Give the backbone structure.
Amino acid sequence: MTTLDPLRLTARDAKRLLVDGEISAAELTKVFLDQIAAVEDKVKAFILVTADNAAKYSTKVDREMQAMRGPLAGLPIAVKDNLVTEGVTTTCASRMLHNYQPVYTATAVRQVWDGHVVMLGKTNLDEFAMGSSTEYSAYQVTANPWDLDTVPGGSSGGSAAAVAAGEALWALGSDTGGSVRQPASLCGVVGMKPTYGAVSRYGLVAFASSLDQIGPLTRSVYDCALLLQHITGRDPRDATSVELPEPVVLPSAERLDGLRIGVPSEYLDVGLEDGVRARFDETLARIEELGGRCVEVSLPHTEYALPAFYVIAPAEASANLARFDGVRYGYRCSDPVDLTDLYERTRSEGFGPEVKRRIMIGTYALSAGYYDAYYGRAQRVRSLVCRDFDHAFSQVDLIASPTSPTVAFTAGSRTSDPLAMYMSDVCTIPANLAGLPAISIPCGLSGGLPVGFQLIGPAFSENRVLAAAHALEGAIGFDTAPPFRGSRSSSGERDRGSADTTPRPEDTHP
Amino acid sequence: MAGELARILAHVGKMSEIDVTGVRPTAHVLDVVNVTREDKRRPGLTRDEALRNAPAVSDDCFRVPRMG
Amino acid sequence: MSDDRRRLVGHEDGTHPDWEPVIGLEMHVELDTQTKMFCGCAVTRGDDPNLHTCPVCLAHPGALPVVNRRAVEYAARIALALNCTVRPRSVFHRKNYFYPDLPKAYQISQYDEPLATAGWFDYWVDGERLRCRINRVHMEEDAAKLIHAGGETGRIAGSDYSMVDFNRSGTPLIEIVTEPDIPSPEAAREFLQQLRATVMELGVSECTMEEGQVRWDANMSVRPAGSDALGTRTELKNMNSFRYLQQALDAEIPRQIALLEAGETIEQETLHFDPDTGITTPLRSKEEAHDYRYFPDPDLVPLEIDPAWVEELRATQPELPAARVERFMRQYGLSRADASVLAPTGALAGFYEEVVAAGAAAKAAANWTMGEYLAHLNAAGLEVGHGHVTAERLARLVMLVEDGTVSTSAAKEVFARMIEERAEPGEVVERHGLGQISDSAELEAIVAEVVAASPSQVEQYRGGKQQVLGFFVGRVMKATGGRANPQLVNELLRRTLDA
C-alpha cells in the first residue's frame, strides 16, 4: 500500500488509486479513521464518528466491487449533522435533537450513499446552522486545524475542519448565508454553494428555507465538481428543486482567456483585513495573467443585504424551528405540568442562546404591526439585491470578492457580540439572497491563516464558476496541509451550561 | 438579551434608509410555479417508526400533558 | 338583499322587530382525495391511530411538502360551483401557532392570495331564493386528532392528558368563507345544508358529518333593522350538526339583543354552545386573540392556474342541485316544493328520472317517489337506489294506476307487497287479486247490498242531500278492499239511488 497523506489527498487521486488497485476502499477508509484517531481530540470536527460502520461498509465495497462501482464508490465522506441519516443519530448540534433517530435519509445523502461512498460520521456545526464559528454547538467547540486557538468558521465548521485536518476526503455542508464558503475560506479548503434549487433540500433540517442550499467542501475544485455532479437534480420531494439546465462538467480549464471578472467596490469596503486585501489583489493579478479581465462593477445595495438577511432568515427560522415542541421526537422537559409548561420549558432548555435570539427576531419581524417594516421590506430589499446582480452580470461573466473579510478569528472573540459575528458573512450573504452559485477557494495565507477567494456566477452557471475556479486554483498552487499550531488553550467541552446537563449523542448507528 | 436584540433590530432597521416604493417583494428567487404531485399513495412509516422518537406514548398515540 | 333580510327576520323572529341578525359562515370540507394535501399518505377515516404517517405529516426535521394536484382540482371545482373567480395566481402561506395537533406548529394555508374569490351561492328558504356572497375559497391542511383521556371522558377540561393520532394530519381541507349575508338561523341551516349537497354533488367529498368531514364556524352580530353597519360579532367554532348550529344561533341572537337593549356592549369572543342547556358560553376571549404571523411558505412555489384548465373544469362540472331544481320544474312541470325535494341530491334525482324514463307520468312519479318510496327507504334504513323497489317496477306500478288496472288506494298495498315479495307489480296484483274491479255485475251486487243496509242514508239522499253519495262510495270501497273502480261505483250508485 502506498503511503497516503490525508492532508493533501484529493478525491480525484484517491479514486485513481482505487481504480488502479493501488489501494482498497478499506485501506483508504482506514487512512482517514487513523487521522481521526490522531487529531480529533484537538480538532473536534465530528459529533459522531461512525467508525465501525465505515470500516464494515468499505470492506463491503471492496468485496462487491463489481456491483458497487461508480465514480464515488469507496471514497470516504463526512456529513454535516443537519442532514438527516436514517439509522444514524442526527442532532443539528442541538440539545433539542440529542437523541433523534431519523426515520428517513436526506436526498443528497441518499444520492451519495447510492454511489457507495463511505460515511465517516456526522460533523459539528453551529446549532441548527445558526452561526459563523461553530462555537454555538451544544456539544463541542471545533478548532481550526491551521491554528487550534481559532475557529473554523461556520456553520459548517465541522465539515470544513474535518477536510482541512485530513479527517475526511471531502464533506457535505449547508450554506444559508455563507455556511459552506466562510468555513471553507477560514480552513483553507474549497466550498461551494450551488444555485438555489440545484440540490434537493429534502432532509436538510431547515434553517431558512428560501436561502438554504447543500454544498460540497473539498480539497480541490475538481473534487467539488465531482461531488456536485452526484447531489444535483430535481427531487420530486422538494418542490423548490430544479434540474440544472446543463449537467455539471468536471473542470479542466487552465486559462481564463476572455473571461470578464467583475470586482464590486462595495465588497472591498467592509473592513477587510490588510492580509485578506493583499491576497485578494494578488489573485486578481493572477486572473489577468491567465487571460481574464478584471473590471469594477457596482452592487449598490450590498450594505442592505446583511440587514435583509437578518430579517428573512430569522423569520423563516422562527417557523421552521417551531416544530421542536417535545411531542413527536427530540428533547422534552421533565414532568411538564401542562401543555404550556411543556412548550416553554422544552424550548427554553432545548435551544441554545443564538437559536433563541434568532427565533425572537424572526417572530418579531413577522408580527402584526411590524411585518411591513421588517419582513415585507426585507423582501423588497432582496429584490433590489437580485437586481444589482442582474445588472452586473449584463457586464461581466463572474463576480469576485474575498469570501470573508478576515481570516480565522480567535475562539470566543465574537460570541459575546452577535453583530460582529454576523459581519463574518457580509461577503457571502448576497449570493444566498439572490440564489446564485458561489465558490470559495483558498488563495494564500495571511499571518499563517488561509484566505478565501469567492467567485459568484449567474444562476445555473455552475460550470462557468467551477471552470474559472479550477484554472485559478492551478495558478495559485495552495498547499492544503495545515500545521495544527496553537495549544487549543481555550478549548474543551462547552463553555455554556454545565457539563453534566449537556447531552451527548450516543453512537447508535446500526 | 434584550439589549442585544435592540442592537440587532437597530442594525436591520438600516433597511428603512432606502426607498422601496414600487419594488415587488421577492419571497423566492426561483422562477418556478405549479410544482405538484400526482394523487398517488406512497408507503409511509409503520406505527413503530412513527412512534420511535416519541418522548411519551399512550395507546399507540403520542402523549401530551393536559391542555392547561 | 336588505329587503329579503327584513322580511325574513319579520316572520322568523317576531319578538325583535327592531333588530336584525347578520350571520356569516365558514365551512371546512375534507376532500376525498387518495392522499393527503402535501404527502403520499392515504386519506383514511376511522382507522387505528398513527398508521398513516410519514416524515412530512409528522413534521420530522427536513421533510418538505409537495402539493397534491387532485386537491387543487377539487378545490377549483368547489370554487366554480360557488361562482367564484379562480385566481390566476395563488400562494400558500404559513399560519403559525402551537398546538399538539399541528405538528409543524404552522398550518399551510392560504392568506392574501387564495385560490378563488368573489362568488355567490343561491339557496332557498321557505320557497324564497336568497343569495349569499362568497368571500373566498382556499386550500389548507387538516390537523391531527386529539383524544382527551382521564377526567370527564372526551372533554379537554379536567382531562389528565391527551393523545395525538396523526392519521388525519395533512388531509386536504377546503375553507369556504361567506360574506355576512345570512339573515336568520334558519337561513344559516338551509344555506349549509344546500351548500353541503352541492359539494357532495361535485364528488369531491362525501361530507359525512359524524366524522367531522364537514364542519363549520359561524359568526353573528345584530344591528338595528335597516341599518347597514355591522355590529360586534361573536363566533361559534367547529360545529358539525345543522340542528345545533340553528339552536346555538337561536340562543345567541336574543342574548346579543338583550345586551344591546340594556345598553351594554358585545364582547368579541368565541362561544361554546351546550346543546343540553341551550346556552352559549365564552370559550376564549379576544385577549388571547392570535397573531398568526402569516408569511408565504418558502417550501412551496406559487400556483399559476391556466384559464384553459379552469374552462375545462367548468365544462365537466356535474349538474348542480340548484340548476337541477330549475330543470325539474321546467322539464317535468313540478312545483318548486316538489322539485326541491327530488332534485338536490343526485341519487334521488337520478332515481326519479329513471322512473319517468321507464314510462311513468312525471307528476305521479314525483308523488310516488317522494311519498311511498322515501317512506320505504326511511323505514328500512336504506340509501336511495338500494331500496327493494327498482325504478322500473315503480314506473310500472304508476302506469297500472294510470290505466285503471289498479286503484289508487289498492296501489299502496301493491307497493307494500312488492317490497315484501320482491316482486313485479303485475305479479302482485294477480297473486293477491288487487286489480281494480270494473266488472259491473260484481259491483252491482255490492252496491245493492250497501244500499239495502243503510235505509236512513238512502232517505237522506233521496230527500236531496246529494253529498251522502260519498258515504255510499266509502262503503263500497270498504267492501271491496279499495279495489272498486270509483267511476263505475259512482255510476252504479246513482243509478240505484236515483231509480
Notes: Chain C has three domains: 2-314, 319-432, 440-498. Chain C touches chain B through 46 residues (CB under 8 Å). Residues 242-261 of chain C form the longest helix (20 residues). Chain C is about 40% helix and 20% strand.
